[in-house]
Every structure is written in C-alpha cells, then in structure tokens.
Amino acid sequence: MPVTLRRAPDLTVRGIGKSYSGVSVLRDVDLDIPSGEVHSLVGENGAGKSTLLKILGGAVRADQGSIAVDGRPVTVHTPRDAIRAGVGLISQEGALVPARTVLENVFLGRWANSWGFARRGSDRAVFDELIELTGFDVDPRERVGRLSIGVQQQVEILRALARGTRVLAMDEPTAVLSEHEKDNLLALIRRLAAAGTTVLLVSHFLDEVLSVSTRVTVLRDGNLVLTDDAARLTPRTLVEHMVGRQIDVLYPQPVPVADDAPVRLSASALSRGPVQGVDLEVRAGEILGIAGLVGSGRSETLRLLFGADRLAAGEVRIDGQPLSSLSPRTAMAAGMALVPESRKEQGLVMSRSVRENVALASLSARRRGPFVEGGSERSAVREVSDAVDIRAAKPDAAIQTLSGGNQQKALFAKWLLRKPSVLLIDEPTRGVDVAAKSQIHRMIVDLAADGMAVVVVSSEIEELLELSHRAIVLRHGRVVGEFPRGTPRERVIAAAFGDEEPTATPGRAAGRTGPATAPGAPPDATVPPSAAAKENA
Ligand SMILES: Nc1ncnc2c1ncn2[C@@H]1O[C@H](COP(=O)(O)OP(=O)(O)OP(=O)(O)O)[C@@H](O)[C@H]1O
Q1: Ligand 1 centre and the CA of 262: distance in Å?
Q2: How many CA atoms lie within 13 A of 309 on its CB side?
Q3: How many CA atoms are closer than 13 Å to the CA of 324, on its beta-carbon side?
C-alpha cells in the first residue's frame, strides 16, 4: 500500500546502484524521506545498508542513481560533498583522530557552513551549546584515543551537529552502547527529528527500530523489498521480509552445569586502571555474564584475564594453576581465547583475507617446522567459517570488503578454530543480524555444553541474562552483585547504577564477590534496594 508523505521530501534517492568487481550489492534503490522523519534501514548482514549510507555520506561512490536534498540535486562524490549538502554520516568505522582532543575533533577542518553552529562564537562556547542540546557528558580536553567507543560516537555526533548536518545517517549507533546510553541516544534522535533533522538509522535491534522510526525500509540482497510505516510492522514481519521466510529467534537455554564440574577459570583481586579487585570463578560448562555500564570495567576485566593488559595486582588461574607472567601468549598456551570488542583495532587484519584472518590465531598450533599445513588449515577454516555462517563472495576476499556483521563472525571463527577451553567474549553479537545472532547464541551454549568455560560481556542485558547461567555486575570496577539466569533485567540495571542491594544470590560467589568482602568497596555499594530501576527514572 502506498505511503502518503505529509511534507515535501527532504532527502530523495533515486535508482541507486552499486557493484564491486561485477558483483551487484545495491540495485535500483529509491527513498523519499520527509524532513524530520526517523527512517530506519534493516536487513541481514551484507544486505547493503552500510553501502547505501556510505554513498549518502560520500565515502563510497554510487554507480547509478541520484540524490536530492530539499528537492535540489546534489553530487556526492566525497565526504566533503556530503557535508556541504548537509548530510552527516556516523559510520561503523568511526572517523576521529585519536591523538587529538575532543574539542579539536569536533571542529576539525572547520567545515561549518551557513546553517552550522561553528561561526557563532568560540569553539568552546559552541561546544557547550552542543553539550546542552545533546545532554552528553564529554570532557572537551580529553584525547579521543582514550575514550570508550560509546563516548567516541558522541564526539562524532557533536561534530556532525557542529557542521550543520540536516540529514544524520547513523550506522548501527546503538551497537556500542549500554542499555541506558541506548535510551539516551534514542531520546536524542527523537529530539533532533522533532527539531527538523532527518535521521536515517541502520540497526539490527528491531524493537528499537520500531520504537523510534516513523517508517522502515527493508533491504534484502541489495534490493529494496519494503518501505512501510513502523506502526504497521512487528519484529516478526520485519524478519520475514529481511530473510524471506519465517524464522524463530528464541534464545537457547544453557545446559545446567554438572554439580561436580571443576573450576576452569578463577581470578582473585584483579586490579588495574578502572578494575579494582575483581574476583570471579567459572566452572567447566558454565557461562558467566558480566554486566555493567560502559566504563564500569567490563572489557578491561576480560583484557586482564587474558593478559592483554598487564595486571597491577591479582592472580588468574586455569584449572587451579596460577598463570605466571600473564600475557596473551601464556593465556593462549593455557587454553584461553579472547574475542575482543573492536574487530578493527584488536582482532582482524583488514587487508588480509577471511581465510588468513580466521587462521591467524591458530597458525603456530598448526605449524610443522616452517610449513603450514595448507590443506588441513583450509578445511578447518572452512568448517568453522561455515559454522558461524560467514558470507563472503570468496574465502580469499579481503576482510575489509565484508559487511560489518560478517567481519564480526570472522572474528568469532578465528578464536573458535583454536578450540579453547576458556572463551572470553566481548560483545559476541555486535553488528550481527537477528538470524546470525541466534546462530551465535546457539554456538555459545553448545560450546559450554561441551565443557568450555565461557565469560561473556554484553551491553544487551537481555542477551546476557538469557545466555548466562549467572551474571555478575560491575560498577566502578568492582563486583557489586551476582544474579542467576531469569533475574528481571530491571534488577540488574539497578545494580549497575548502584540502586540495588549488592548481591541477589546467596550462592557460591556471593560472599566473595559482594562489596562486603571486596577490598576497598565503595560506601554506596550497600545502599538499600530500590524498587525502581534508574533506567525508568
Ligand atoms: N569495498 C568492498 N569491496 C567488495 N565488496 C564490498 C565492499 N564493501 C562492501 N562490500 C560487499 O557489499 C555487500 C553489502 O555490504 P554492506 O556493508 O553494505 O552490508 P550491510 O547490510 O551494511 O551489512 P551489516 O549488517 O553486516 O553491516 C556485502 O556483500 C559486502 O561484502
């Protein structure tokens, strides 16, 4: 059924097409987006969503088609063209200069145009105005390289607004955010749209898409298959259009841990930087979730367990044996693997092929003298890549040519190939589509059922609580609570904010991990429980 537009289209896209090496990734895409509309693009990994956004942002040049803003045709061949046309792209890759400060990044290049903020006063005054508008809490003097991914994204949004962006194209902006930050960003998107900014949003979170969007477009294999009012759609109908068939996306149940299962991984008093005396214990077959706000020390805890950052104090033990001089090398030799948060900075070599990347962490294990066993490597890589369903044009394709979600799957495959006994995973399904996500969930549950000890960090509280046997909550680098599977998410969120009694389970780790025994526990860790999660405040 045709959708009637209430206002003149602000952004018009006609017949956009794009091919790479003869492979068509976008075909004849049309969009008409009125000013002030939040319009979401959804689709499976590799459907062409990022490519469409990159074309609008001038990062990729379309082969066919045209773009008009406010009815005026615009040529967008470079990011500078896009900025001039009023289009700002917040991409998955990020585009900040890590060595520069927040303020320098926001005003980098002084792109401001006639409708921008940047000519109305000093940089600092404009920055303060933008902070007021967005409600972000960002120190303008901090170096960007020292900020979490979530805060870096806020800097990108500030920069786009400083440049006078009227069409804000955001590629999976909430993938890097905690629940509370997601809510804040969605509220900001609504405010910007109400003030007349057109927002084009790519997201794999279908509930979020339906709650924030006016209309939604579904792409499948580079084709536009549907544009419709969000109010007429459900997550289920969206998935059907995305995948082309009905699928169930229920969480698999973790298999109960055997009573006599040995403790595979344990750590005591882990400390460094934001992490302050974390104790934890994971048994063979157990999935332990780590929840907390961004900056609570979740990822840092995983990095300390793996030796990626040197411990200032504390001890890590595998099967009861302390790991002396902990480093990634000793951790890997002891059977640990870490699937990191950032595929670009910590996990994948972008110029290398999928096969090389997946094989990378296992090369030394498979080397015989100076030779790599080519045949067996190839078949092992193929097996694990098939298991996580990596969709690449060919195995020798450079990893940078894969869609974001397929890169994430390659990162996962790389570590699975090592067959670790302890798997540490930071944001296992970031950027992964709904269908692939349930495959990865299934895989994590199966790996644990086979005896692996798994530690998962996820900003998606539902994922964390459904997948894990129990979850610990970090706040300011300390364990402030432990919750069994099935705990209402509000209680876990309240603990992350400091609004919940410290420990909900009188279980094995309760006394150990609660603030009562944690060294130097903060005084506010024992505040009485509050019925209302802060999130709802
Ligand atoms: N530089 C490139 N060279 C070759 N192929 C590419 C390149 N960039 C993207 N592709 C291919 O284009 C297709 C669409 O990719 P795109 O990144 O737009 O997908 P997406 O829908 O954003 O996926 P995701 O949800 O995983 O981010 C994919 O098959 C991808 O492999």
Answers
A1: 43
A2: 19
A3: 0
Any residues with CB less than 8 A from the CB of 340 and at least 6 apart, and which?
299, 302, 303, 308, 346, 347, 411, 426
Domains of the chain: 9-243 (3.40.50.300), 263-335+420-536 (3.40.50.300), 353-417 (no CATH)
Residue nearest to atom 8 of ligand 1 (CA): 401
pLDDT at 35: 87
Atom 12 (ligand 1) nearest CA: 25
Tokens representing 91? Answer: 């991409």
Nearest CA, atom 19, ligand 1: 46
pTM across the whole model = 0.74
Q: Which amino acid is located at 281 in the chain?
A: E
Cα separation, 271 vs 311, whole angstroms: 6
Q: Which amino acid is at 478?
A: R
**Ligand 1 centroid to residue 502 C-alpha, Å:** 44
Q: Which residues line ligand 1 (CB under 6 A)?
A: 20, 25, 43, 45-51, 401-406, 431, 433
State in Å: Cα 401 to ligand 1 middle.
6
Q: Which atom of ligand 1 is nearest to the CA of 43?
A: 21
3-state helix, strand, coil in the chain (%, to 5): 35, 25, 40
pLDDT block averages, 10 residues each, the chain of length 537: 48 95 92 93 92 95 94 92 91 84 85 44 84 89 87 91 90 82 89 90 92 96 95 91 77 91 96 93 97 86 93 93 90 91 73 82 49 62 79 80 83 83 91 82 91 93 92 94 90 80 40 29 28 28
| Cα–Cα dist 322/316, whole Å | 6
